[in-house]
Amino acid sequence: MNNKIEEELTAIRARRKVLTSAIERKRSTIWLLRLWSRFIRIRDAFRCLCCESSERIQAHHIIRKTLYPLGAFDLGNGITLCSECHGRVHAMFNGRPDLSLPLGAEQGDDQDEWAFLFGLLVDDAIRRDLPQDEFYYIGDHILEFSHACQGYEELRETVVRGDISRIRFAHEIWRTMPEGFYSGFVSELIRLNFDDLLD
Ligand SMILES: [Zn+2]
Ligand SMILES: [Zn+2]
């Protein structure tokens, strides 16, 4: 492995450590989000994973934190986008979700968009040979929840065995999930997370 790649890995690891130890010390949400955002940008080599631009880049939550607060600091739930691509993603959904409406009624939370963004992370990790579960970790919640859902046991087992990474799992599950199953899944996600909603 050449020095440049080694240096890059060391820098990303250092950023990850800053974030994880701040989480352990229970620092404020604003502080943690700032560290999370820095980690995401350095991991993605300070460029938009959608269009490769390095102008006005920002870290974006793939599954937004109002819907999935337990994933607010998950490494695999963040992606670097330029402000233009970021704006396009958010144009699909603005503001807080109206939880009384059926999912999709507000034209947000497009499962294809999630699958697309998770897919960009997987592709970039493969291209740059980055360790997926170390730099793109996703918590157990999604795994555990999907365990209860018929048809995805096999996929979950591949993650438990370590055959596929968590980020790959996220890509596959959103890519393949049928529409009806999806709304049930997200309703349950909202119920599980509701008490912990962050801003
Ligand atoms: Zn965003
Ligand atoms: Zn872009």
Strands, count: 2
Range of strand content: 5-15%
* Secondary-structure class: mainly alpha
* Envelope shape: globular
In spatial order, strands of the major sheet run: 1-2
The bound ligands are: zinc ion
Sequence of secondary-structure elements = HHEEHHHHHHH
The parts where pLDDT drops under 50 for at least 5 residues are 101-108
Query: Could you give the distance between the termini?
Result: 42 Å
- Number of H- or I-type helical stretches: 9
How many discrete structural domains?
A: 1
Write down the Rg: 17 Å
Biggest beta sheet attributes: 2 strands, antiparallel
What level of helicity do the residues show? 55-70%
List keywords for this structure.
2 strands; binds zinc ion; mainly alpha; two-stranded antiparallel ribbon; 55% helix; 5% strand; 199 residues
